[in-house]
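Researcher: Here's the sequence for the chain we discussed earlier.
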Amino acid sequence: MAPDGSQQTLALRYSFPAILGITLNRGRLPSARLTDDATSRCPGFASLAALIAGIVAALAPMTAAAVFVVNLPWARPAGEGRTSEVYMALTSTEGATLVDVKCGVAKRVVIIAAGDRSAAIERLPLPKGDAVTLEPGGNRLRLVGLSHALKLGDRVSLVLTLEYGDGTRQEIPVDAEVRRRSAFDDHLHGHAR
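Model: Thanks. This is the structure I predict for it:
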């Protein structure tokens, strides 16, 4: 958590270097495949090779292929059964699309387009390297049918589902504080929630 009480989430998509036939598939543990026919000539070699492959997999450096940042998430207070809105800044180094949002305290979550009409949209593009700000009057998330009241200082857990250009999806957990305005606005105008 940042000194001003704001939350920042950093999610990484990893690529794993091909070392000794070790691969890492997104969301799965490393696996090793022995292709050398030495395993058939030396009975203990397979166990030793598997042990070495496991050690290399644990110690090999993983490099980030993409970074996704959620900055300053917050939600407006609202009563039980009512509607609230959630705001934050989203940045993807690879480019992605927000395709779904889940929240345990709402019957459903709707992505709302910027503008006065408050039209729901199915997908929100997140261009490569550009911060997309979800803000009052702009693009935002609407929590519909709250199961309980959201009071100042409460926390709201959401899960953002991103889709990347290659069709893979990633779920990003987000913890938003219920506030009257953003932590940044509080910093500029005093520290009242």
